[in-house]
Amino acid sequence: MKLTDDFKAFALKGNVLDLAIGIIIGAAFGKTISSLVSDIIMPPLGLLIGGINFVEFKFVIKHATLKSEAIAINYGNFLQNTFDFLVVSFAIFLVIKAMNSSKKKEEVSLVNSNPTKEEILLTEIRDLLKKQN
After folding, report:
1. Are 118 and 126 in contact (CB under 8 A)?
2. pTM for the full model?
3. How far apart are CA 77 and CA 54, in angstroms?
4. How far apart are CA 61 and CA 33, in angstroms?
5. Each residue of 65-84: pLDDT tens digit?
6. What is the C-alpha separation between 80 and 49, in angstroms, rounded?
7. Average pLDDT, the chain
8. Shortest CA distance to 36 belongs to which of 87, 86, 85?
9. Quick one: pLDDT at residue 11?
10. What pairs with residue 67 in β-bridges?
11. Contact 84/33 with Cβ under 8 angstroms?
12. Do residues 64 and 70 lie in contact, with contact meaning Cβ atoms separated by under 8 Å?
């Protein structure tokens, strides 16, 4: 019984739940960005470079025969995955930058907010102590 209680305490900690939520959101975000790249960005880019699909780029080492398939280095697939990575990284960068910007604005608004009664009283006490010295 102790083992199950320990596991429940571990699994229901805030950090574990936050991590699980982050992974789920990250997977959905990754699918969205992959769709953005493959469905929206790549077609116009392919049109600009002459209708060439990156995935079709390959260097054939051995051509196919009746008995075996072709052996090829699929560098186009690598280029596509690299491009996907760069777009995903840039999107994450923009999201984090926006979040950091909103945090800074929130911190500035907290600093510029009206002082509490305690802060006013402490300021008055500080000023009185300065005058006595």
Report:
1. no
2. 0.50
3. 7
4. 33
5. 888 898 999 998 898 888 87
6. 14
7. 82
8. 87
9. 73
10. none
11. yes
12. yes
Q: What are the E-state strand segments in 82-124?
A: none
Q: Please, what is the angle between helix 75-111 and helix 14-35, to 10°?
A: 130
Query: Which residue's entry shows tokens 């072709």?
Result: 70
Cβ atoms 29, 93 nearer than 8 A = no
Maximum pairwise Cα distance, the chain: 101
Number of C-beta neighbours around residue 33 at 10 A: 19
Residues in CB range of 10: below 8 A, 6 or more apart: 16
The residues that bridge with 72 in the sheet, in sequence order, are 60
Helix or strand holding residue 105 (H, E): helix 75-111
Contacts of 68 (CB under 8 A, 6+ apart): 62
